[in-house]
Amino acid sequence: MATNLASGGAATQRNIPAPLIDDARRHVYEAAIRTPLVRLNYDGPSDIYLKLECLQPIGSFKIRGAYNAVRLLPELLQEDERRRGVWTVSAGNAAQGVALAARKAGVPCKILMIDAAPAAKFDAVRRLGGEVVKASYDQCWQALADRAHPAMTGAFIHPFEDDAFIAGNASAGLEILEDLPDVDCVVAGFGGGGLSCGIAAALKARGHKAKVFAAEPETAAPLARSLAAGSPQSFPGWKASFVDGCGGKSVFPRMWDLAHHLLAGSIVCTLEETRKAMRIVAERNRVISEGAGACAVAAGLSGKCGSGKIVCVVSGGNIDLAKFSELVTLSDI
Question: How far apart are CA 237 and CA 82, in angstroms?
């Protein structure tokens, strides 16, 4: 299902300033790498390319936004605040990004982490020096809305909502334009919206007309619901799944102010479509993609992005190998 904005009254339009995106681009490679764009070796409905953010040092695009956000924290200029460090909320990828950024900045880092996250993500955060505090998904989502939690101290790094984080993510969009100037469409998983909106902001800053779609799993598709209603909505039927890196419980109002005018729509994929996409990427390109990255590929393969050259952002590869093996070796239904 592809959902676009319902007609209705005017809504607030938020934008990410182009100078902030350009500044982020100058600095993100102090922590991130410039990831390759490769053709998907599969005959789909369009020419499909993969933006391999799973090859980042932390296995996810989140290092871009996390590093930029930590770098720009005014609190890190004050010694007493440096001792308190930084914290974030995460299912695992932003946790690794903030932990690595904090290590580079020489400050402590605490993570309020969803207790159902894959073991591989917990292990990675601890390797990077992050202190993990486990909490339920509901508690973590509430902490994101409140920007506070009783167990957390220090400067809060929002993992998708703030301009500096989104501007860091936008650097991936600039790379796509450089590698494929005639791109027609980009599709990326939508959890909080920081990746898809960042890429769309980058394209807008360069005056490019390519459409940017969000991809959401059928079990957690609040953006599709919001676009249909014309206002930010919760997703009442939310269910946890192996697509843990995208698909939130709601669309935050500040992210709605970006998404409703920057994104062309939301493409909702079934878990089976996502699993098949995961296997196609593994078989044809020998790439490990986690659920959120495979969801974007499933959306690209659906035929709902239009024709032409489509870039699917493989946003991460942080999935337990046993779970990955189970998913890619299941017989097709």
Answer: 41
CATH number of 63-156: 3.40.50.1100
Q: How many CA atoms lie within 13 A of 242 on its CB side?
A: 26
Q: pTM, whole model, 2 decimals?
A: 0.93
Strands 131-135 and 109-114: parallel
At position 124, the amino acid (one-letter code) is A
Order of strands, edge to edge, in the sheet holding 265-269?
2-3, 265-269, 211-217, 185-189, 309-314, 47-52, 37-39
**Residue 152: exposure state from Cβ atoms within 10 A (0-12, 13-18, ≥19):** middle
User: In this structure, what token pair is assigned to residue 76?
Assistant: 């890190």
The two tokens of residue 115 are: 């207790």
Question: Tokens representing 228?
Answer: 């249909």
Question: Whats the size of the chain, residue-wise?
Answer: 333
Q: What are 88's strand-pairing partners?
A: 111
User: Do 2-60+163-329 and 63-156 have matching folds?
Assistant: yes
pLDDT at 5 (0 to 100): 45
Q: How far apart are the first and last CA of the chain?
A: 20
Q: Where are the domains of the chain?
A: 2-60+163-329, 63-156
pLDDT tens profile 265-287: 999 999 999 999 999 999 999 99
Contact 223, 266 (CB under 8 A): yes
CATH of domain 2-60+163-329: 3.40.50.1100
Alpha-carbon span 140 to 120, nearest angstrom: 19
